[in-house]
Structures are given as C-alpha cells and as structure tokens.
C-alpha cells in the first residue's frame, strides 16, 4: 500500500497572462482550479500509472470542501481530517516566456488534537511493508520536529518512508531515519552548508548518506536532470528539451513514480527511467495534471541515462 501525506494542501488556481506586470492590472485567461499539495500530486501520479494510494491530510472550511470534492472527482482515495484551519488557496501565473509566478498563502495552524487524528489515519491506512510519502511544507506554526515525530511512528510499524521537505523540517526528517530522500540541488547544498556544489560533490555526499543507512537519495538538477544514488547503483539522468507548460508538481510526479515502482518491485534502473519520464512529462502538462503512460514512454525513449561515478 502507498499512503501519501499532505499536511498543508491548497486549492491551486493556475492562469496564463501574456506578460506579467507587477503593479499593473493583469488580465488572466485559461484559468483552472485544482486540488494541490505535494502528497496529493504524488497520489495523482500513482493513479495515472493505474496504481492505488490513500491520500491523507488536513482540509477545512469552504475551500477544504471544494478541495476534497476535486480529489473525489479525480478518483483519488482520500482520508482527510476536517480541521478548524481553513484550507489555503494559491495562485500560479505563467507568462508567454514560460516563467511561473506563484502567490502562496501560508495556511493556518493545526491543533495538537487534529495532528493526533491525522497520525492515527496515516497508520490505519498503512502498516508493515507500506510506502509512506511525506512531502511538502508544514502547517503554519508547526514545530520543526513534526515530521520527525511522524516518521518515528511510521518506522515503529516497519513502514518505508519516502521524504521530500525543506529547511529545518528536512534535517529533522533525515535524523528520524527516512529510507528515500528526494531534494533539489539548492536544498542539498543547504544540507551540506554550501552555496554551490559540483555534481561530483553532490554524488559523493549522496553516497555517504547511503552508506550511513539511507537506501536511496535523489538530487534533482532542474532542466539538467537528476542524480539517483543507492549503496550499489548510481545514475545520472539528462532529459530531452521539451516545451514547459507548468513547473508545478514535477518533483511530486517523480516521487509518485518512485513509490509506484518500489511497491511493484521494479528494478532500480527501471524506476530511474520511469520516475525521470514522469517528472519531464509533468512540466509538459498544464497546471498540476500528471502525464499519462503514453507520454511517459515517449519521453523515456529520449532520456540519456548513464552510470554516475565519483
């Protein structure tokens, strides 16, 4: 079973404008509204692969009701805690040059009681042998060790944790002993306390994390691709040049394909190819839509994948 967690989900409104002009009136068009949140995006990708997952998280207020309605309409299995905190709403604006401007609300604080209810749902949905995808920002006002607490509870059930976070929450999650870590180059440099790091340094640092107990480390390099590292295998993936329609959710689609491939027992090289194709396909889709298998197979044939060396 795959269980995804969205602690701070949102209603995402995506729109297009020819040229975004700060301080001026901007006329939006091609407006879409969808349920957003990294865990939700992961579940959406798993569904596109004909897989099954349970999306767990928080939802509150009228925005939360619309959020859940969107998930149900898309065929996702949901188990959300209804909270006093109103679900946030975000706006993502793409201009003709492909640049995306995001206006994101911070969200509202979650009570300790509501957090306990969520952890109970999380553990009810998955147990020993289940794959738990924990991704995204913490709710406003949460303690930095929130993910650490949740991860420890999951590890007590012998579950497998896939993790994608930022800042203090990232380090706390790593300290709790996650199995798979996915982060971008900037986040990884922050982890190393460096402003910049070469791919050789990134590879060696990722390998070190694996020798210390982590099973898989993925560092994404934007349009440059990604590095996938385990104790025994390492790959450098270079994607083809594609038309970018939305950068929202590309990493989440990668995470969804990773979880799907692991649950299905696929080889690591196959997981690398599929998850990379999912990420590239996501940027070719509008809003937070996930790519389908046909598009992913087309992209997969164009990926350049080589073994990485230190």
Structure in words:
The chain has 10 helices and 14 strands. With 310 residues, it is α/β, with parallel strands linked by helices. The strands form 2 sheets. Strands 5-4-1-8-9-10-11-12-13-14 form a 10-stranded mixed β-sheet, sandwiched between helices. A 4-stranded mixed β-sheet has the order 3-2-6-7. Strand 6 and strand 7 form a beta hairpin. The longest helix is centred in the C-terminal third of the chain and has 16 residues, at 268-283. It is globular, with a radius of gyration of 19 Å.
Keyword list:
single chain, 310 residues, alpha/beta, 10-stranded mixed beta sheet, 4-stranded mixed beta sheet, 14 strands
Estimated radius of gyration = 19 Å
Lateral arrangement of strands in the main beta sheet: 5-4-1-8-9-10-11-12-13-14
Tally of contiguous helical segments: 10
Order of helical and strand elements: EEEHEHEEEHEHEHEHHEEEHHHE
Helix content: 25-40%
Mean pLDDT: 92
Q: Using DSSP, what is the number of strands? A: 14
Structural class: alpha/beta
Shape: globular
Which range does the strand content fall in?
25-35%
* Largest sheet descriptor: 10 strands, mixed
Q: Give the CA-CA distance, first to last residue.
A: 35 Å
Low-confidence segments? none
């Amino acid at each position: 079973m795959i269980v995804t967690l969205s602690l701070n989900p949102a209603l995402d409104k995506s729109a297009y404008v020819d040229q975004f002009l700060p301080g001026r009136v901007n006329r939006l068009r091609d407006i879409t509204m969808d349920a957003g949140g990294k865990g939700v995006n992961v579940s959406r990708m798993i569904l596109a692969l004909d897989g099954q997952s349970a999306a767990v998280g928080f939802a509150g207020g009228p925005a939360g009701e619309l959020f859940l309605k969107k998930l149900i309409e898309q065929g996702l299995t949901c188990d959300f805690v209804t909270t006093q905190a109103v679900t946030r709403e975000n706006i993502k604006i793409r201009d003709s040059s492909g640049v995306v401007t995001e206006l994101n609300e911070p969200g509202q604080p979650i009570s300790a009681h509501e957090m306990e209810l969520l952890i109970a749902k999380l553990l009810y949905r998955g147990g020993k042998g289940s794959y738990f995808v924990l991704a995204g920002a913490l709710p406003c006002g949460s303690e930095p060790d929130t993910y650490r607490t949740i991860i420890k509870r999951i590890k007590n059930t012998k579950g497998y944790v896939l993790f994608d976070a930022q800042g203090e929450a990232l380090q706390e999650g790593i300290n709790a002993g996650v199995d798979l870590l996915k982060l971008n180059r900037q986040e990884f440099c922050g982890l190393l306390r460096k402003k910049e790091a070469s791919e050789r340094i990134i590879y060696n640092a990722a390998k070190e994390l694996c020798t210390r107990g982590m099973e898989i480390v993925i560092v994404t390099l934007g349009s440059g691709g990604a590095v996938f590292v385990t104790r025994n295998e390492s790959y450098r993936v270079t994607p083809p040049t594609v038309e970018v329609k939305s950068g929202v959710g590309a990493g989440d689609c990668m995470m969804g394909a990773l979880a799907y491939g692991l649950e299905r027992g696929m080889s690591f090289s196959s997981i690398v190819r599929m998850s990379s194709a999912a990420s590239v396909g996501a940027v070719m889709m509008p809003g937070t839509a996930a790519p389908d298998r046909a598009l992913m197979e087309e992209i997969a044939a164009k990926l350049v994948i080589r073994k990485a060396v230190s």
